[in-house]
Amino acid sequence: MQARIISSEPILRKNCPALSPNQRPKESNGREEEEEEEEDSIEEQKVALIALIEHRSRELQHLKQRISYYQTQLVEAEKRLEESQVKLGRLGGKGNATAPNKPSVENGIKNVKGRKSPSPVRANEASPRSQPQSGTELVVPKVPQPLKLVRPGSARPSSSTPSNGVANAEVEKPSSVADVKVEKSYSDMNVKMERSHSSSSSDVEVIEIQDRGTKTKIEQKEHKELVPLVSRSSSPCTVHCHTSNHIPSQHKRKLRSVAVCPANDQLFVSSALDGMVHLWQLQAQGSGASILSTTDCMSPLQRRWPEDIAWHPLGNSLFSAYTADSGDSQISILNLNKTQGRARVTFLDDKPHIKGTINSIEFMPWENTCFVTGCNDHGVVLWNEKDDESLWKPETLHRNLHSSAVMGVAGMQQKQIVLSAGADKRIVGFDVQVGRADFKHQLDSKCMSVLPNPCDFNLFMVQTGTHGKQLRLFDIRQQMEIHSLGFKQESSDSQSALTNQAWSPDGLYLTSGSVDPVIHIFDIRYNYNKPSQSIKAHQKRVFKAVWHYSLPLLISISSDLHIGLHKII
Q: Which of 85, 292, 361, 400 is the most exposed place for a label (fewest CB within 10 A)?
């Protein structure tokens, strides 16, 4: 048997082709298979542990940020409370002249609520008599708007007059009147933290503001005649602006909008092409800001980002406009009053626009709550609020007065006139009560936005595509252009509709973004059409810079994905 096996070996080698070492079949070995399985198991465990470590690291970082934020808020609240108690002691002159070293927050709030705030009206009336007439100073925070939320009867005349006039008033107001306003506004609102249940995959915290009382009637602003001042000065007044901070926006794509809350001067929002809306809270009088919530506001069908946003006048919800294409939702409401477990973003069922992008959404400055949208379908739609804030009835004002896309809409204060600016180079003023156009203006280039002056109700600005004359000022009474302003662009010759403008609270200054990394500031009293100054603000193009209505602050957004905080000093 052995001989046969040995003798057959040469025959096998002869008939079979030779195999290379790589081609020879491997012998199965139970031990090798076990080692391979063990190595695979170890690798899987490593991958799982690495993922777990990354998750817990992010969780730890998030907790650290929350702890740091609350510590900062606690220190600032204690400091404000102590300052208020000291001032209360000074005013009383008896007993509590010195604040305790470690004040109780509960007692402090009772003390603040128990006293009445000095009248901001008296402080403002004293300003013109004692303030030096300087052409180089812009006093932004002295406007009456930020005091709207103070209940009637809470203000009384100041018991003492500062020895040095306005200088003291400017120092005292942020820590007395403004602080009392913020504390009283928060006494009307229950601020709670909850977990977001939006479609965003990240588990982030959101702030909720619940109004315990009935709706506050929106105060009507007072008219101030500014038209006679337009283009009458030979030298501009300079705004002393200092960039104090650049904050990463935490958006993944380019920013689109920024807006300050009209009812709470500590809050503002930003939106971007990633569909996210961030709610921010200012810190240390505008030196910094932190995110309170992140909400996914993408449209349900096409997953489109908000093209434009607008705060509800009560400051409890944010409205976003999208597109009219493919049957997608056109308007969404991000409601900050929704309780845990209920949807925070709702989409309106009505779809009055026919096609194209909805370029602009603006609330009207009228007694009845309503907003207007302008779209690429040439249409302008008025949305009236019904009994429930989630119910809005759309009414098409006109669709044939523009021959091209409506790029911007706004409302005049003294009369129910809706302004619309179109890419057809036309401005239309539509009288809602009469139901027809009150006036039309034909310009020499496309119109991209319209912006009424906050103080002079007859004055409004239109952004155009003409180089060197991008901004035009109009008087609604004269129905004619009274002044033009503009700037040169170094980075590009194109004029983008994404570049926007904003009025200062006193109505005398305009800010404009640019394709360059600068903020242009215009003094409308200056009789030259160039910027009175240009501030280097970002690394890339600036989309918009908005004025804060109660703090000396500009907030800007840029394609460098940062938010700029620029203090006015």
A: 400
